[in-house]
Amino acid sequence: MDTNAHILPVVLCGGSGTRLWPLSRKAVPKQFATLFANESLLQLTLRRLKHFNSHLFAVGNEDHRFLIHEAFERELISSTIILEPSQKNTAAAMALAALTANPNQLLLFSPSDHYISDSQAFYEVIQSGREAAESGYWVTFGISPSYPSSAYGYIRASREDPLGERNHSTALSETFRVNQFVEKPSTEVAERFLLQGNYYWNAGIFLVSAKACLDSLARLAPDILDSCKNAIQFSSQDGVFIRPDKSLFNDCRSESIDYAVLEKLEDLVMLPFHGSWSDVGSWKSVSELYDADINGNRIVGQGHAIESSGTFIHAESRPIVAVGTENILIVDTPDATLVVNVNHSERVKDAVNLLESKGVLEAVTHRQVIRPWGSFDSIDRGDRFQVKKITVKPMSRLSLQMHHHRAEHWIVVRGIARVTCGDQVFDLNENESTYIPCGTKHRLENLQDFTLEIIEVQSGDYLGEDDIVRFEDHYGRT
């Protein structure tokens, strides 16, 4: 193996968790939500990982391809993005990446939704695992626990020589032997782990060569590897996107890499990471990333607390006031608000399940919907009408399309719009408007180097997003 080769980070973007609802939803999972200073966890992850390599891999869901690509573009990082036709857990995702990479490449598998404030400490601990990975070992990174958490899985590790006679260097001697993976324990058991001192939080971060990864899968989960190998063999490529064959990949068994491989593996070592880390798995863990005032309140955005203690307010779009509250988490978005006791923050997913069972759209989608060309925000809706604010990125355009059931009025509030309406093509300036009749082919474009904003008023007997016929689309949508 080329010991001078760069480590190739592989960002695992396939999660669709709902524990941070209403900010995170299935349509826009938490790794894409703007949690910190208008930046997403995925952006922060990419910024941390680009120190290892100027080109990164990502594995994610087809539905989120433009969100992933946009995050890479914002960080000016070259990418290869493997799009899973369906979610099959981490074993399959890691197999796809290993099959695509050079066999001798060291792969750093990293979740896209973790928060690590000390990038330099993270870089150093990963580099210290390089020699073990180059020797054919899987290297995992355990987080030194700061409190007895029942929300994380644990790794039991020992200082005994993990590499035996192959251990010839100082770097290798600093590794730990992994003795056991432990499921999320009760608080009492977690307290025992903390006192014993040889238990670490399982961060799900791994450094391994592509060859060792594939060899382990071939020995311990051959069916998963075969399904992924067949799907990659018949994959298609579109720019940075690699699409494994859908039918072949859907036959793959869904299992985590922990269960499929690591718990059965002998060539597995651990390095402890002593820096600050969070999997941002609940609103309680999010709140703890912000500084508290003298009453233990943590306020983000337009929140205000009066005679309150231990209260967290995340108010991104309007004033939210808490009076006389204790140990409460309040999260407000333009179309949904969550209020939960801090001790029940892990049960937010139960609330989402309840809303889904009742057919509440806000359980899954946001009022603002991201599109590859920009976004639209559904400002108001009633019987036979809907009002949207449409934002089009510079040098971007919507598809050439038609609607069977609705007409549209467009009013430009910022920028210059290039409009196609039937056989006519013309420009609209600020404060100008136009009418798109029902059944007419049309397109909206922004040919400027600044953002275009319009107000769209829809009217008709059906206003669903599925009333769209695309004749031409720059982004390959059907």
* Secondary structure tally, helices: 13
Specify Rg, calculated over alpha carbons. 25 Å
- Which range best describes the helical content: under 10%, 10-25%, 25-40%, 40-55%, 55-70% or over 70%? 10-25%
Shape: globular
Largest sheet: 6 strands, antiparallel
Write down the CATH class of the largest domain. Alpha Beta
What CATH architecture label of the largest domain applies? Answer: Alpha-Beta Complex
What is the tally of beta strands?
29
Strand content: 35-45%
CATH superfamily of the largest domain: Spore Coat Polysaccharide Biosynthesis Protein SpsA, Chain A
Kindly report the average pLDDT value: 91
> Number of folding domains?
3
Low-confidence stretches: none
Structural class: alpha+beta
Q: Which sequence of strands runs across the widest sheet?
A: 18-19-20-28-23-26
Reported by name, the CATH topology of the largest domain is Spore Coat Polysaccharide Biosynthesis Protein SpsA, Chain A
Distance from N terminus to C terminus (CA atoms, Å) equals: 44 Å
